[in-house]
Amino acid sequence: MNKRIPLVRRATTWAVLVLATYCAPAMAAEGNVGLSHFAFRATGGEAPINAYVFYPTIADQARSARVGPYDVAARMDATELKGSRPLIVISHGQGGSALGHHDLATYLAGRGYVVAALEHPKDNVRDGSGVGTAEVLLGRPHQVSALIDALAADARWGQILDRDRVGVAGFSMGGYTGLALVGARPNFARLLDLCDAGLERGMCDLLANKGAALDAERPARAYVASLESAAREAGTLADSRVKAAFVMAPMALVFDQASFAGITRPVHLHYGTADRLLDPSRNADNVIRWTPTLAGRTAIVGSDHWVYLAPCSAVLAEAAPEICSDAPGVDRAKLHRQIQKQALDFFDAHLES
């Protein structure tokens, strides 16, 4: 069973499988999408950040790839179709993988989009050392912005990107990231109210542990104050190039009404009513109540948190049943077909040329 790490629980039992992610994959069934690894650096980053680019390719190069524990409907390093194409960046959840939403990526790429999915440093399946830190909470949106910069400047990808049509799709902490990119400003002091109310105990324990060295008597309060200070110093997390955000089961504990006041770009919210990890009453409901540009919302009755991850391969299902199992009556594959179509319709509508 996976160990719970607050703010959002990480699925770590499958880490050893994802270590194979950057190895050469085997090819299988047909498709019309190419897949290429892409490394870039964020401002001040010490090491390259790994990402994947999904893109339309010519029909006779279409295949399917096994990449680590994932069966991806794409061919590695196929020739891209030319043209000026909108870009969607996918941001994974806490402890996630760049390929955790590969089915959404290939669906959008197969319909004309370039899709880039990054692995957030120190908050991924291989390295969770930054969970709950300002480096991750404030760094995630900046990493997405750096990826957009790097793709636009790249000799290959810059030739086919329409820089005026950029969107973001995010799950869980990736949903938080997407909301921040379109203008939501986190208010970390809200976390103290939750702790005082006896809610989100795991998160509160994390805050206390991290703040113990700052103030032994009031560790959580001291740590939250350090997050607020870092946020003021970091300035805006928004990126004006991101024109729309499709967020799935977002971590929205840190947003209040004032947080959403600066959002001027459309948001579509997708969430499960039975999410045991990010209680909708303290997360999705914040987005519903206070987002002035909420363009749509979809509630999946009876669905839990992990249903937004791509349907699992047999290898992944055996290694990590917790993130691959759904409630009785929930058909993840069918649900993902709905999500994919809604995401496509949303981005088509709001990233018009």
Quick structural overview:
Helix content is 32%, strand content 20%. By secondary structure, the chain is of the alpha/beta class.
Structural account:
It is a single chain. The chain has 353 residues and is α/β, with parallel strands linked by helices. It contains 13 helices and twelve strands. The chain has helices at 15-18, 102-109, 134-137, 139-153, 173-181, 190-196, 201-211, 219-234, 257-260, 284-290, 314-319, 321-324, 332-350, and strands at residues 26-27, 33-40, 49-56, 65-67, 70-72, 75-76, 85-91, 114-118, 161-171, 242-248, 267-272, 294-300. The longest helix is centred in the last third of the chain and has 19 residues, at 332-350. It is globular and about 65 Å long. It starts with 14 loop residues before the first helix and ends with a helix.
Strands of the widest sheet, in order across it, are 6-2-3-8-7-9-10-11-12
The H-and-E topology, N to C, reads as HEEEEEEEHEHHEHHHHEHEHEHHH
Nearest-integer average pLDDT: 90
Number of helical segments with 4 or more residues? 13
Q: How far from one another are the termini?
A: 47 Å
Helix content: 25-40%
Helix-and-strand structural type: alpha/beta
Approximately how much beta-strand content do the residues carry? 15-25%
User: Could you tell me the number of beta strands?
Assistant: 12
> Could you give a short account of the major beta sheet?
9 strands, mixed
